[in-house]
Design goal:
252 residues, alpha+beta, two-stranded antiparallel sheet, DUF2063, DUF2063_N_sf
């Protein structure tokens, strides 16, 4: 292990000794100064997770959250200096963190919070005028072969829990028990300066996911059972999620 990697490993793990060879310019004890520095780094990373996952912290309480986050940061060094990016796999960590098993929906709430942050920082795109969308979709000869381009901020999540209801309730500090609600799929979308979160049907989730993958409108409809097409398209249009329509090339 290189000196740099040894230093980073010791910085994130309080059980490790101060790396050898460190000196202090003012003559202070290097071990003491390193311990203070390490504590500041760990605290900063835990604070970054708290900022990135506020609803998760509300659900389990600050003390539990900081203890859980402390375990995470000791094994997961930042990959970027941008702290908004830190904790990208925090949901996966929560899913396997045994002390959190009594809150089975916690990992999916973390996933939703991550998508919310990603949507906020996604690229801008001009929504297509609603009249042009409606005109294209109203043409029987054109509509079936269209590919629908969606806003780059749009994100989808499938969950067996009512993650949208839980997330929305905790925007106002109101706890909601997950047992009272069915499974929900989430659509996250930035509309102007606001990131919106919607609960959508399983069929709508599959349909929109297919559109994101570049599937034609006809193929996306065929792959989605029990889809309320008119309602789903109206929602995408109303919330300015459609940025362009492309005619699919059909072989002669």
């Amino acid at each position: 292990m290189s000196d740099q990697h040894a230093f980073a490993a010791a910085l994130l793990d309080p059980r490790k000794a101060c790396p050898p060879g460190l000196i202090s310019a003012n003559g202070a004890d290097p071990e003491s100064r390193f311990a203070v520095y390490r504590n500041n780094v760990l605290s900063s990373l835990i604070n970054a997770l708290a900022d990135n996952y506020p609803v998760v912290m509300q659900l389990v309480g600050e003390e539990f959250f900081r203890a859980m986050a402390g375990v995470y940061v000791q094994s997961t060094a930042p990959r970027s200096p941008v702290m908004n990016d830190y904790g990208g796999d925090f949901a996966e960590f929560i899913e396997h963190f045994e002390p959190a098993a009594s809150v089975p929906y916690l990992a999916d709430v973390a996933r939703l919070e991550r998508l919310h942050r990603q949507a906020w920082h996604a690229a801008d795109a001009e929504p297509m005028a609603q009249e042009r969308i409606v005109a294209a979709l109203s043409s029987p000869t054109l509509a079936g072969h269209l590919k629908i381009g969606l806003h780059p901020s749009l994100r989808l999540l499938q969950s067996p829990f009512a993650v949208v209801t839980i997330w929305a309730a905790h925007q106002h500090q109101t706890p909601v028990p997950f047992e009272a609600f069915p499974a929900q799929n989430a659509l996250v979308l930035r509309n102007g300066l606001d990131v919106e979160v919607f609960a959508i049907s399983h069929a709508a989730h599959g349909f929109i996911a297919a559109l994101q993958q570049g599937v034609s409108l006809t193929a996306a409809i065929d792959a989605s059972n029990d889809l309320d097409l008119e309602h789903t398209l109206a929602g995408l249009i109303r919330h300015q999620a459609i940025i362009h329509l492309l005619a699919e090339q059909v072989s002669p």
